[in-house]
C-alpha cells in the first residue's frame, strides 16, 4: 500500500508526519496535555478552530520512514525507555526488530527475553498508570458500562480516545505508545495487516471461506460504530471537556477511524476478574509485541495495581516471548491480528442446521430438540482433528428433521435421549444430504487443496495471499475430513441397495 495523502493549502499547521498509519491524522492541535497519565485535572484548553485538513488516503506512510522513526526515537526514547521513566519497574524483556515483508514499511518490534527465564518468572509488570482502559478514558465507570452495553464497543471508545490523543502529538502523555502502534500498523507475526484493511482484490484470496463474509460484516459494524461516535463524545463528560470543539465525525474521516479501530483491535487485552470498565485494556509491551501461541497458557493478568505476565515455559535470552489470546479459531486470529496458526488446536468451522419451519411436526420437533439440549436453529462446531465427533454429534439432530411419519414422531416424543436410526432409507437420505453439503462447501473455493499446497511451497508468495491460502487450506482439510467421515458412515450401512427416502421437510444446512 503506497502513501496517499493530500493537504489543502488553507491548512493552518503542517501534518504530523512522524506517526505513520494506522492512527494517522493531520489536524491542528486544539488541546495541550501535560505529560501525565492522570486525566482530567491535567488538561488545559486552548480555544482554536479545528483545521479542515483531512487525510484522503488510507495510508500516510512516507518514504524513508525507518530513518524518521529512528531520529524520533533518539529524541523521545523508545517505548520501553518511556515506560521506565513513567513507573515501569525493572523487567526481564527487551524490544527487538523483525523485518517487514515490505521494504517501504518499518520493521515490527517484538518482546524478547533479556535474560534466561524459567517457567513461573514474571517477565514484566506494567503499572496501571501505563494501562489504557475505558475507566480512565471516560472518567466514569457507569458511563463506560452504559456506552459499551448499548451502541458502542470498547474497541470503538478506545480507538476514538487514541485518535484524539494522536492529535496532541508529542504533548500527549501517550505519544511514545501511539507511535509504537503506528509502527506496528496492526500487523501480526507475518507482518500482515488484518483483512479489514485489505483491498477488494486482496479479499478475493478468501473466496469460498466464511471468513470473507465475516470481514465484510465486521467492516459494516465498524461503520455503524463510526456513525455513533458523536454519542460517546457527548455522553462521556471527560471526552467532551477534553476536546470541546472536535466533534468526532467532523474531526476524523471514516477510513482513519477504521485504521485506528484495527490497530486497537490488534493489541487490546481482555483482562479477567476486573470491573467491566477495565476488562478491555491497552497494555504497552502487550500484543502485538508479544507473539501468539495456541498451546501457550501464559496470559496478561490483572494484579494489585498492575498488569503482569508470568511465563509458562523457559526462554533463552533473545527468544521471542509468546502468550495465549484465548481459544480463537484461525478466522478470528486473521481478522484480529493478521496471522494464521497452523498448529491451532482451537481452529474450527461452523455448520448451521435448522428444522424446517414448514414441517407440520415442527413444534413437536422443536420440543424434542430442546429436550436434548439443541435449538430449532443449531450451530455445530467442527474442531480441527475432531471432525468425526462433530459429524456424529449432528446425526441425531438431522434424524429428527427427517422423521415424517406420525407414529414415528409419537415414538420419538415418548422416548428419552437422542434420536437413533429409524430406518435404513431415512439414514441413507440423511447421510447423502450431509455429504452433498460438504461437497458444495468445498466446491465454493476457486482452488483445490493440491493447488493451495503448491502455492504455499513458493517462498516468494505475496504475504497476504500466503496467510489467506493457509486459512482456506486448513478449512478445506477440515471439510474433507468431515466428508470422509460421512462417506465412511454411508459405507457402513448394512444394505446399499436401499434407495434414500423422500424427505419433504428435510432439515436445512448452511
Automatic annotation (TrEMBL):
Asked whether the UniProt record includes Transferase among its keywords, one would answer: yes
Gene3D superfamilies (UniProt xref): Rubisco LSMT, substrate-binding domain, set domain protein methyltransferase, domain 1
One GO biological process this protein is involved in is:
methylation
UniProt KW Transferase keyword: yes
All copies of domain Rubisco LSMT substrate-binding, residue ranges: 357-479
**Cellular-component GO terms for this entry:** chloroplast stroma
Per UniProt, the keywords (alphabetical) are: Methyltransferase, S-adenosyl-L-methionine, Transferase
Q: Give GO MF terms, alphabetically.
A: protein-lysine N-methyltransferase activity
This one is known as Rubisco LSMT substrate-binding domain-containing protein
Amino acid at each position: 500500500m503506497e502513501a496517499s495523502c493530500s493537504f489543502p493549502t488553507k491548512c493552518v499547521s503542517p501534518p504530523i508526519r512522524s506517526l505513520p498509519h494506522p492512527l494517522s491524522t493531520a489536524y491542528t492541535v486544539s488541546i495541550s496535555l501535560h505529560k501525565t497519565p492522570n486525566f482530567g485535572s491535567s488538561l488545559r484548553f486552548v480555544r482554536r478552530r479545528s483545521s479542515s485538513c483531512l487525510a484522503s488516503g488510507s495510508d500516510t506512510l512516507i518514504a524513508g520512514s525507518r530513518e524518521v522513526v529512528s531520529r524520533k526515537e533518539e529524541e523521545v526514547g523508545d517505548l520501553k525507555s518511556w515506560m521506565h521513566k513513567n513507573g515501569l519497574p525493572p523487567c526481564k524483556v527487551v524490544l527487538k526488530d523483525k523485518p517487514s515483508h515490505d521494504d517501504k514499511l518499518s520493521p515490527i518490534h517484538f518482546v524478547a527475553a533479556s535474560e534466561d527465564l524459567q517457567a513461573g518468572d514474571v517477565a514484566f509488570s506494567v503499572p496501571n498508570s501505563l494501562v489504557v482502559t475505558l475507566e480512565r478514558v471516560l472518567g466514569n465507570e457507569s458511563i463506560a458500562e452504559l456506552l459499551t452495553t448499548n451502541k458502542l464497543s470498547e474497541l470503538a471508545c478506545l480507538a476514538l480516545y487514541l485518535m484524539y490523543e494522536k492529535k496532541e502529538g508529542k504533548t500527549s502523555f501517550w505519544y511514545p505508545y501511539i507511535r509504537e502502534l503506528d509502527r506496528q500498523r496492526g500487523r501480526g507475526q507475518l507482518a500482515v495487516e488484518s483483512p479489514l484493511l485489505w483491498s477488494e482484490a486482496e479479499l478475493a484470496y478468501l473466496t469460498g471461506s466464511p471468513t470473507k463474509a465475516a470481514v465484510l460484516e465486521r467492516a459494516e459494524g465498524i461503520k455503524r460504530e463510526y456513525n455513533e461516535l458523536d454519542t460517546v463524545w457527548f455522553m462521556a463528560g471527560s471526552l467532551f471537556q477534553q476536546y470541546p470543539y472536535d466533534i468526532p465525525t467532523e474531526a476524523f474521516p471514516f477510513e482513519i477511524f477504521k485504521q485506528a479501530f484495527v490497530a486497537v483491535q490488534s493489541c487490546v487485552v481482555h483482562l479477567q476478574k476486573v470491573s467491566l470498565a477495565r476488562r478491555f485494556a491497552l497494555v504497552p509491551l502487550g500484543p502485538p509485541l508479544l507473539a501468539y501461541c495456541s498451546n501457550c497458557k501464559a496470559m496478561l493478568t490483572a494484579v494489585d495495581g498492575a498488569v503482569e505476565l508470568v511465563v509458562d515455559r523457559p526462554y533463552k535470552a533473545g527468544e521471542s516471548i509468546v502468550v495465549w489470546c484465548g481459544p480463537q479459531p484461525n478466522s478470528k486470529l486473521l481478522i484480529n491480528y493478521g496471522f494464521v496458526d497452523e498448529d491451532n488446536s482451537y481452529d474450527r468451522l461452523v455448520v448451521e442446521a435448522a428444522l424446517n419451519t414448514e414441517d407440520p411436526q415442527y413444534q413437536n420437533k422443536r420440543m424434542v430438540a430442546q429436550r436434548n439440549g439443541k435449538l430449532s436453529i443449531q450451530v455445530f462446531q467442527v474442531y480441527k482433528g475432531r471432525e468425526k465427533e462433530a459429524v456424529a454429534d449432528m446425526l441425531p439432530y438431522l434424524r429428527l428433521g427427517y422423521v415424517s411419519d406420525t407414529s414415528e414422531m409419537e415414538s420419538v416424543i415418548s422416548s428419552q435421549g437422542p434420536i437413533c436410526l429409524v430406518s435404513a432409507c431415512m439414514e441413507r437420505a440423511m447421510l447423502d444430504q450431509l455429504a452433498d453439503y460438504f461437497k458444495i462447501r468445498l466446491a465454493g473455493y476457486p482452488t483445490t487443496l493440491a493447488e493451495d499446497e503448491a502455492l504455499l511451497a513458493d517462498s516468494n508468495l505475496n504475504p497476504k495471499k500466503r496467510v489467506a491460502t493457509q486459512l482456506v487450506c486448513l478449512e478445506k482439510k477440515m471439510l474433507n475430513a468431515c466428508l470422509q467421515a460421512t462417506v465412511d458412515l454411508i459405507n457402513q450401512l448394512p444394505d446399499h441397495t436401499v434407495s434414500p427416502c423422500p424427505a419433504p421437510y428435510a432439515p436445512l444446512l448452511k
